[in-house]
Design goal:
The protein has 7 helices and 11 strands. The chain has 254 residues and is an alpha/beta fold.
Length: 254
């Protein structure tokens, strides 16, 4: 059985941008800041494309939940090789309060609507580092899950996933339908070529709203304040081991 793959793509502040906290500490500055696809989601898109190139996948559908600018992220996925896209349109003010459980509910509904049997996500988004959406979506769908995948092998409806865990590597055997999350070492994403970027403009992109999927996206908790991390104190050099031991004693380390 060939896979029909749904890949979640989140638009985040680009990894090379220095993050700044808003003066009122309600969040981080996003206006006028470069955004791109979450790097782990890029890896997920790439893995889906590789499955299709091996003729193990029939169709790749990219999905993103957020404001209009998320369509740029979806066009990137289409230029990489996804077949079509779905944009779940969420107003900017609602998107700023969107939480992993709401995203998981949206993804689960889209997966059911599209009758896919494989959902790929990045293991986490680099903006909030929650690492929750994939696991929550698998639970809502009651599908098998293979999180933190560094290798994926597909044979019929059997999926073998090598997972990165604290103690090393773990191999799990799963049956489709499955939810998989891509880890850093799964692959190296390709660059979208100019011809493919042009072709992506003609690929279909459906638009939905949370209400169309019957999902309530109201937040369950409130962020009270966002703070800059504490500045790191400057280090100091010592001339000898004895001096190092003395300083460590003064600091209460020894």
């Amino acid at each position: 059985m060939a896979a029909r793959v749904l890949v979640a793509c989140k638009r985040v502040i680009d990894y090379a941008v220095k993050i700044r906290v808003k003066p009122d500490k309600s969040g981080v500055v996003t206006d006028g800041v470069k955004h791109s696809m979450n790097p782990f989601d890029e890896i997920a898109v790439e893995e889906a494309i590789r499955l299709k190139e091996k003729k193990l996948c029939d169709e790749i559908i990219a999905v993103s939940c957020g404001p209009e600018k998320c369509q740029e992220t979806l066009r990137t996925a289409l230029a990489m090789g996804a077949d079509r896209a779905i944009h779940v349109n969420i107003k900017q003010d609602e998107y700023e309060k969107l939480q992993p459980l709401a995203v998981a509910k949206l993804l689960a509904k889209v997966a059911e609507k599209e009758k896919v049997n494989m959902l790929f996500v990045g293991k986490q988004a680099i903006d909030d580092d929650s690492n929750q959406t994939g696991q929550m979506t698998a639970a809502l769908l009651n599908w098998a899950q293979g999180m933190f995948a560094s290798e994926v092998k597909l044979s019929g409806d059997d999926v073998e996933v090598v997972r990165e865990v604290d103690g090393g590597l773990e191999t799990v055997s799963l049956k489709m339908p499955v939810v998989l999350s891509a880890d850093l070492r799964l692959n190296e994403p390709r660059y979208a070529t100019l011809p493919n970027i042009m072709k992506a403009k003609k690929k279909p992109m459906a638009k939905l709203a949370p209400d169309d999927l019957g999902v309530d996206i109201k937040p369950h908790f409130e962020v009270l304040s966002v703070e800059e991390p504490a500045s790191r104190e400057a280090g100091s050099k010592v001339e000898s081991v004895d001096e190092l031991v003395t300083k460590l004693k003064e600091k209460g380390v020894l």
